[in-house]
Specification:
Blueprint lengths: L8 H11 L2 H8 L6 H12 L1 E2 L14 E3 L2 E3 L3 E3 L12 H12 L3 E3 L7 H7 L4 E6 L5 H13 L3 E5 L9 H6 L9 H8 L2 H10 L25 H10 L3 E7 L2 H9 L4 E4 L17 H8 L5 E3 L6 H9 L4 E4 L1 H32 L14 E2 L5
Parallel strand pairs: 4-11, 5-6, 6-7, 7-8, 8-9, 9-10, 10-11
Antiparallel strand pairs: 1-12, 2-3
Length: 376
């Protein structure tokens, strides 16, 4: 019944806030610094208007979008997120089953709470492995070989975390991976007994890709040694599709295309890294001009509705990815809540397309959708 109360992503967030321990909610919801970057992301999306059109036959609308030779049933996939099972036990698998059902990409994080092998099976192959460079890179390239052996054909290098951004909400709660339980955390969990007892019964979420001998990951370890040589080495090692995520600068975008990557994901890491970074949605059109019409541009950061997705696609994104709002829906009402929010987002998108006179999401049909706002 809780799922019936989800009518928007804001509803999912509100319900999750009541159910999750404060430490967990703030880990999922928080952003860098004083969080002005997150506010700026939202303001930039809100400032974009859609162009309403009338008397167009839009009775037959398609939400499909091609991505890397496959037809996804939605123009949005699932962004890679670490430790999803903090939102609820089994959250990783819920997301994987959703990806399989709608044939959309599931981003499998380096620090997922379910192993990469299990997730690509559950997603029926609709999974991309997200990679963090760490330390001297030895563990990084071990994971590349492991992803290849598991059947992954798309690798996503997250490049915007040379150092983990300072997120004061996490720091105030003493959030660490793995958990260190002190008096403050114990009190927090005691105040949220349903989450705590369920999590205790199912087992503490862990970084599942590092439970195997020979694999190690320290979330606080510097990742600053990665450079263009690292990328070229990765391109040589990985024969599948290679996406670089976390790109906001057009010079970087041009250089990445020149290095032979297969796609760029425009992203500010959900405003969790550099508080002063520009809003990603304001960079899409300039980046599109630099990389050309045929080069794949993906987008994540701050998307909260179907209208947000339509705006982003109209600006030039070939595909989009949703993140924390999906975890909020799981925290609010489990797998039923996840499907409920997915349906809400799909309906929002479909209605917005009708209002804008659009029957599909092909780039040619979207050229006159966006109107107004600071997106030139």
């Amino acid at each position: 019944m809780r799922a019936a109360n989800i009518h928007s992503s804001a509803d999912a967030r509100r319900l999750a806030r009541h159910r999750l321990p404060w430490m967990v909610f703030d880990y999922i919801d928080g952003a860098a610094g004083e969080e002005t970057g997150a506010v700026r992301n939202r303001a930039a999306l809100d400032a974009l208007c859609l162009r309403p059109r009338v008397l167009r036959n839009v009775s037959d609308r398609s939400l499909e979008k091609p991505v890397f030779g496959k037809v996804a049933q939605r123009p949005f996939g699932i962004a890679p997120m670490g430790m999803c099972n903090l939102s609820a036990p089994g959250a990783d698998l819920m997301l994987a089953r959703l990806a399989a059902r709608y044939q959309v990409p599931l981003g499998v994080s380096t620090v997922a709470s379910t192993s990469m092998e299990r997730l690509i099976q559950e997603a029926e192959g609709n999974a991309w492995f997200q990679l963090y460079f760490s330390g001297d890179g030895s563990s990084t390239f071990q994971l590349v070989d492991r992803a290849k052996a598991a059947g992954y054909t798309t690798l996503v290098l997250t490049a915007d975390v040379p150092e983990v951004g300072r997120r004061p909400r996490e720091l105030r709660h003493g959030f660490t991976m793995p958990f260190r339980i002190g008096p403050k955390q114990f009190f927090d969990f005691a105040m949220h007994p349903k989450w705590s007892l369920t999590t205790l019964f199912k087992g503490r979420p862990q970084m599942a890709n590092f439970l195997m001998d020979g694999y190690h990951f320290d979330r606080t370890e510097s990742r600053a040694a990665a450079d263009w040589t690292t990328l070229r080495k990765l391109r040589d090692q990985w024969s599948g599709k290679l996406v670089v995520k976390g790109v906001l600068d057009i010079e970087d975008a041009a250089a990445l295309k020149g290095c032979g990557v297969d796609a760029i994901q425009v992203s500010s890491h959900g405003a969790r890294q550099l508080e002063s970074a520009p809003s990603p949605v304001q960079t899409i059109q300039a980046m599109r001009r630099v990389v050309g019409d045929d080069f794949p541009l993906f987008y994540d950061s701050g998307l909260r509705s179907g209208e947000d997705v339509l705006k982003t696609c109209a600006l030039g994104a070939n595909f989009t990815f949703l993140g924390r709002i999906l975890l909020f829906s799981i925290a609010a009402a489990g797998e039923e809540g996840l499907h409920r929010l997915w349906d809400v987002l799909s309906e929002e998108l479909s209605i917005a397309m009708a209002q804008a006179g659009q029957s599909d999401l092909t780039p040619g049909s979207l050229q006159d959708v966006a109107l107004g706002g600071n997106h030139s």
